[in-house]
Amino acid sequence: METCAGLCPGLHLSLGIWVIIAAQTLQNARAEITCASCQTPVQLHLEELKPGIGADPTEEPSSLKSIRVEFRELAGMDGDHEPGVSAEDAPQFLQDVSLDGVSAQEDSAAPSGKSVRGAEAAAPLRAKRSGPEFAELSERGLTGRSGVDVGASEERGFMVDGHRQGRSEFRWNRDEGRGNNRQDEPKLTGSTFALTGDSAHNHAVVYWSGQNSSVILILTKLYDFHIGSVTESTLWRSTDYGSTYERMNDKVGSKTVLSYLYVCPTNKRKIMVLTDPEFESSVLISTDEGASFQKYRLTFYVLSLLFHPTEEDWALAYSHDQKLYSSVDFGRKWQLIHEHVTPNRFYWSVAGLDKEPDLVHMEAHTPDGNVQYVTCRAQTCTEANRNYPFSGYIDISSLVVQDDYIFIQVPTSGRASYYVSYKRDSFIQIKLPKYSLPKDLHIVSTDEKQVFAAVQEWNQNDTYNLYLSDTRGIYFILAMENVKTTRGIGGNQMLDLYEVAGIKGMLIANKRQDNQVKTYITYNKGRDWRLLQAPSADLDGNDIHCVLPFCSLHLQLQMSENPYLSGTISTKSSAPGIIVATGNIGAELLYNNVGMFVSSDAGNSWRQVFEEEHNVWFLDKGGALMAVKQPSVPTRHLWISFDEGRQWTQHSFSSVPLFVDGVLVEAGAENQIMTFFGHFSHRSEWQLIKIDYKSIFSRKCTEEDYQTWHLHNQGEPCVMGQKQIYMKRRPGNYCMLGRDYSRILSAESCICRAHDFECDYGYERRSDGNCRPAFWFNPSTVSRSCSQGQNYLNSTGYRKVVLNNCTKGVKEMYTARKQQCPNRPPKGLLLTTKDGKLTANLGSNVTFLVHLDEGDSLRTNIQLDFGDGTAVSYSNLSWTEEGIKHVYKSAGIFRVTALAENLLGYDATTLFLHVTCPVEHVQLLAPFVVIRNKEVNITAVVLPSHSRTVTYFWWLGNNTEPVITLDGSISHTFLSEGMHTITVQVSAANSILQDTKTIAVKEFFKSLLLSFSPNLDEFNPDIPEWRQDVGRVIKKALLQVSDFPEEQLLVAVFPGVPTAAELFLLPHKNQSEGKKKSEEEEELERASDVIVSALNQNLVEFELKPGVRVIVYNTQLTLAPLVDSSPRHSSSAMLMLLSVVFLGLAVFLIYKFKRKIPWINIYAEVSQEKEQEMIGSVGQGDSTPKITLSEFSTSKELMDKELDARVKRGVGNACESTREIPNCTSV
């Protein structure tokens, strides 16, 4: 077992088992966008999101399948995510998030500060989900399926067992670099509890509700990686903050195997525990913090849960078969909402935006495989009650409902198109700079009245560009280029972007530049960035000569894969200005020779505190710092600082070194308790060490223990348009805060200056610092919604940074100016379909969108010609905002033309739309036998008939590449004798059909038309297989009356009834090498005479089934009996008689007018003719007229002739064959 997160050495196998500690539920469980709202380092996960959010986190890494970048927001956090979960802030249920798919657990690890995390990618947007109650630790490390929703938690940590009452040993001073004994050190008190009997269990879920509750629940499990399920479990409960635990298996059922634990975010006394579905599918419900449980059977397997943000009994459950259920009684009863819902793409309503509190937003699949955005009420989600806020289809895994915004991605044939709805208004396409051309887009954050988006552009591979939107989320501008990504454990990628907790507008990012990565900081949301100033001295007091810009401080901005160990950077909203991070000093970011650095003034100055990497947590609401060395080896010491990292005191928390799996910090608002979770050895039980660190404080803080702190940016007091003064505890005072103490004492608005404004959409900042129009942007463009007599805001090229509070100054100069709308002709007319496609199915509703870049929309007439003889006209453009719908009643390619016209001019545009319908049937018409070196016509008849919308692919003979045509016929010359295969594929719309025929190619041949006694028609199902089988039986019967070689006989049965066939007598394969041609012809003539004689004497017959004998006739008026002695055949005989009459008439007309027949067979070579000709089958005489064969007739004529041919099968050899070509039996 490998150590996870470097917790244990090679011998310590079980320490690789990550433990999930769910410290507390989010106060508001909200869906996350595929991002970390900049509250945590942004993580881009390469792991594919599994269908089950709540799936067991122990699954092997083999489950990772595709790479996608995703950003998640840590919902509910008020600005900080610290790795050590605070029970009152920590999430109480997992929220798996994915725009492309990762588990919420990984998100939940966020340290204090907004560390923006991303995940694997699909689609561009992802949402946060409740997975099993807490993050989990496994033998292979933190799994990506379930995770703690850190969105709400400021502090998170693992509960690690430890030892009893450690005592502080010495104090470490930065200036001295060594520890000094202190006799008056406050002592740590604690207790240790071992989960006896669970040494084999390799997963643990720990829940501490906080809010002054003393209850802790621990679920340990044995996950079998070979069978992929939980085989054993134990539920433990403590009512004294973890001093002692009670085994609860008897209360839930001694044989019940539990898999996941969920806690209601709005009432932490309510708990759901799921059983493992391999044994039974049930839910155990408790309303008294796990003191008692009631079991309810489930008819489905829950993969994830999403609790309502305000209603404690409401929950959504996602099942293994992609069904979404709702419950309004905390899981006792469930009702189906919708089938075929995309994993992690369902959301509860947002208060203040959605009218119904039980409204559910979801992404659902249609029967034809498309994806739609659907809304309905949880308990009345019938088809009639469903709404579709976006009328078209969307990309899979692209729906994100977050705060004021809803995001979708629309499938297009070329570039990706992203749409946003602000405060539930209609969807508007997101506007990125024209040539950003995103390969991938993820929403990073939406919680500061604007949208942060990470975009990987067409020329980027391992970096992303950071964009910021306006308040409505429509117009995006570039904030930073080439933000670095880092590959984490399990293939996850993390975006090196971190939002500092507690200070609005402050971000830290790692940027790749000239093959180097450097760390930059901004105080105004990316308007300006600068390098970090390195410390002036090292730990030993030696001067550090590091001169900007050649040398600076660089920080690692990754979150820990283990949510209860510190990441490489930590901040906390209750301790504004304090930043603790791992980094190095030099020209670029490195990952060796790193140290720990602390800033007490929001990144303006830094000092080094450790030479090695440590896990650091905030204690006492941020009043103190606790550090534990990176646990690659067992430890029993921790360090605490009361002066923002300047001095540290060392304490012992265990008498025996502990492999630390995690730390849970501050379980309650009114207590000072932390819990270590880990193992003494690889064979030991789970150890829980509860520590009450109240004893390290000498007293409670008073007013004199606080001081003011002025936020500034390198001496500039105005940050985000304000002068902000905070109250903080004086460094070095050993007093206890108990509650959040940090607050803004005063916030005075500043006079607006240039750095309070960023470049507006379409503008770029030049080297002189001014914003100028980009080469692709026309600043004189006026919105088409601007009508004569109205006013519009004309941009100055600048816009105020969102949430910047400056006033006056240059505000008026940089703010957009109100101007009167000018009169102008229409310009930039664009016509598209709503789904962006140039194809449509016959009979479907096609919605056309008309866009006009310039022109008075209220005074511009719009005309639209659909190209099928219909057109519409609108007096102004406003009538076309919802699109213009039209239904085509025939297939074809239609020229659709739009015209915009007003008194000053006009503009027009054209679109060619392919209207198609699926091909239902294709039949290949070709002769059975053809003459070598003679051109033959081959036709494919398609039903229903299509006009210009069908593509034909022809494979002729041994050709490996097809001949592609838009016509249903083709001419071909076979150059060699033998059996040749012809295949045609017909493509129309989304359907492809195929038919294949085999043709015999010879120098010459003889043929006879055959008919049968009428009783054969009663058993003719008219399918190719039946015709082939009957052809083989006829051939066998003919061989019994003739000694002609079997391989030179070919029998082809025609489709339809009356049943008819044609017999071909072929020359020997090696005729050219053996007998002369004349001799071979004489041999064929003799064989023909023998067969005709046998047919005329009714000697050829076969038994179709017992009691049913079929006689084969030569088709001649004198030989084929017209009336059967049996009464049941009289009608068939009469039909044959009539068919002879009609066929004779048809032959006469053909001869008279020499009509060109498309599928006439070529039976013999005719020389000295300019046009290809057909000679009838060799028969009684040579007086058969020659029929000229040229181009094919229309499809309608072909079908008419096919019907006519079916009544012409009673004529002798003298008649030309125009019947439908049947399947033929191979020789």
Q: How would the blueprint of this fold be written?
A:
Elements: E1 19-22, E2 42-44, E3 82-85, H1 104-108, E4 114-115, E5 155-156, E6 168-173, E7 178-181, E8 189-195, E9 203-208, E10 216-224, E11 229-238, E12 246-247, H2 249-252, E13 258-263, E14 271-275, E15 282-286, E16 294-297, E17 302-307, E18 315-319, E19 324-327, E20 335-338, E21 341-348, E22 359-365, E23 371-377, E24 400-402, E25 405-410, E26 417-422, E27 428-429, E28 438-445, E29 452-457, E30 463-469, E31 476-487, E32 493-495, E33 497-499, E34 507-513, E35 516-522, E36 530-531, E37 552-555, E38 569-570, E39 579-586, E40 595-599, E41 607-610, E42 614-619, E43 624-629, E44 637-641, E45 647-652, E46 659-665, E47 673-679, E48 686-692, E49 699-700, E50 706-710, E51 718-719, E52 722-729, E53 735-736, E54 743-749, E55 757-759, E56 763-765, E57 771-773, E58 791-794, E59 798-800, H3 811-814, E60 817-820, E61 827-833, E62 839-841, E63 845-854, E64 861-865, E65 871-874, E66 884-887, E67 892-902, E68 905-916, E69 921-925, E70 929-931, E71 935-943, E72 951-956, E73 963-965, E74 969-973, E75 978-988, E76 991-1002, E77 1006-1012, ...
Parallel strand pairs: 1-9, 49-53, 62-68, 70-76
Antiparallel strand pairs: 2-32, 4-33, 6-7, 6-45, 8-48, 9-10, 10-11, 11-12, 13-14, 14-15, 15-16, 17-18, 18-19, 19-20, 21-22, 22-23, 24-25, 25-26, 26-27, 28-29, 29-30, 30-31, 31-32, 33-34, 34-35, 35-36, 37-39, 38-39, 39-40, 40-41, 42-43, 43-44, 44-45, 46-47, 47-48, 50-52, 51-52, 52-54, 55-59, 56-57, ...
